[in-house]
Amino acid sequence: MLELPFWLILLSWSFLPSTQTSLFTIESIPISLKDLLIIPIAGFYFLLQVKNKHPINTRLKHWHHYLPLFTVVLLIYAATSIQWSGMDKSNCMAMLYTLVLTGSACLLAYYLIAKIKFTSLHSFLWRLTIFVALVGLLYTAQSFFSLGWTTLNDSQGNDFGIQRVRGPLFGSTTGYFMLVPALGFAIDEILQNPSKRLLKLSIVFSLLLTIISLGSRSAFILLSVLLTCLVLFIKNRKYAVISLAIVLIVTTSTMLLFYSRAKTDRLQSLEDTSRQDTYLTSFQIIENRSELTNIFGSGYGSYWPWYIPDTQNPRETGQYFDLVWNPYGSLLYHPHSTFLLCIVELGLPGLIYFAFIWFILVKLLFENFRGARYPIFFCAIFTSGFSMFFDFFLFKATTVSTLWWMFLFGALCLNYGVSASQRQHKIISYQR
């Protein structure tokens, strides 16, 4: 019963098309009921946590590294910075709403993971991995067989041959952010638990097929980084070799299957003029403004008031806004990079927060040298963090970001929960 609200909202995210979700206006803000549901669900798990303040004994007290607290503090700062962002009232309200969604995504994941018994956490993450794999397989089937469940974007059809995999839960340019951690957890499950290996291998196959079928160059970069991490950061060399072989063999087979119909044209070059211009313009902004502005940032939404265009335009035209202009050059209508948002609009507080997330990711990765129980999962979580340099997560893509937070907090809890159990066992043995 504890998990039921989460699974219900996940089902709605996965199968209820955004274009068919009721869109209503509050204070000139277009709001989707599908996104709005995350706020009461997060509040529900928060109230459960407040009701029972007793910590779970099998976890270290600060297993979360205070990440939820730092996230809330940054969001409060971002909300305050809107005062000097220069946006009009409607955009101010809309961007404040995005901060509420961002905080709800993080807190929903944290409080749910915190409430699940440590002994049940592994099975929860495995169920979540299976669910993500099955949803991805369904989206891939509609793309591969052209079932027509979604509208074909002409630009995608021209450079990819068939529609790139996407659906209500994730898009073709966002799915890898949470699919890669799920893949790492699934591979660990195969190697650690000998039962039902055929089923588990099919889950790995489904996840890799979905990642490949996204047609995203970023997804291929992440797979390359993951392979590198498997070689360099897994202490058990036999474990590393087997996991590497699984990824290479299954990736090759999925590519042969999917690209028997799809084109590889868009994958033959990493050049992306729009994103390159956005990066160059962003650094021009930083270089040409005052030191005080660089410290405090220009204000959340000052250069990228993305929410209203992102919500309304695709519904009306089927296309997204592309470039916007400012005195320093051209920018995409949203930063396409969490890193850029942090350093341009949020200044030093944003940079510190971004560095803190990476400190946690790196720390989690180096746990593998201490013989971590979930080495591939930890490598995959670390790898997924690179997504925040070349696409816009946490503040946007609420559904995908929520699942990424879920896997991150799950990894932290599994790691430090095991450490607490080992420490408690040593104390008991010493007392005896």
Q: How would you sum up this structure in a few lines?
A:
This protein has 432 residues and is mainly α. The chain is 66% helix and 4% strand.
Structure commentary:
The protein has 432 residues and is mainly alpha-helical. It has two domains: 4-269 and 349-431, no CATH class; 273-348, no CATH class. It has 19 helices and four strands. The protein has helices at 4-15, 33-36, 38-51, 67-81, 89-115, 118-144, 154-160, 176-192, 197-213, 217-232, 237-258, 273-288, 291-296, 307-317, 338-344, 347-366, 375-384, 387-390, 398-431; strands at residues 23-26, 29-32, 323-326, 329-332. The chain has a two-stranded antiparallel sheet. Strands 3-4 form a two-stranded antiparallel sheet. Strand 3 (323-326) and strand 4 form a beta hairpin. Helix 6 (118-144) runs antiparallel to helix 19 (398-431), helix 8 (176-192) runs antiparallel to helix 9 (197-213) and helix 15 packs antiparallel against helix 16 (347-366). The longest helix is centred in the C-terminal third of the chain and has 34 residues, at 398-431. 43% of the residues are buried.
Strand content: under 5%
**How many strand segments?**
4
Using the CA coordinates, give the radius of gyration: 22 Å
Could you estimate the helical fraction of the residues in percent? Answer: 55-70%
Structural class: mainly alpha
Please count the helical segments: 19
Strand count, sense and closure of the main sheet? 2 strands, antiparallel
Shape: globular
C-alpha termini separation: 39 Å
Helix and strand run: HEEHHHHHHHHHHHHHEEHHHHH
Unreliable stretches covering 5 or more consecutive residues: 151-157, 315-320, 419-432
Total domains:
2
**Strand arrangement across the biggest beta sheet:** 1-2
The overall pLDDT, averaged over residues, is 85
GO molecular function: ligase activity
Keywords: Ligase, Membrane, Transmembrane, Transmembrane helix
Pfam families: Wzy_C
Protein name: O-antigen ligase family protein
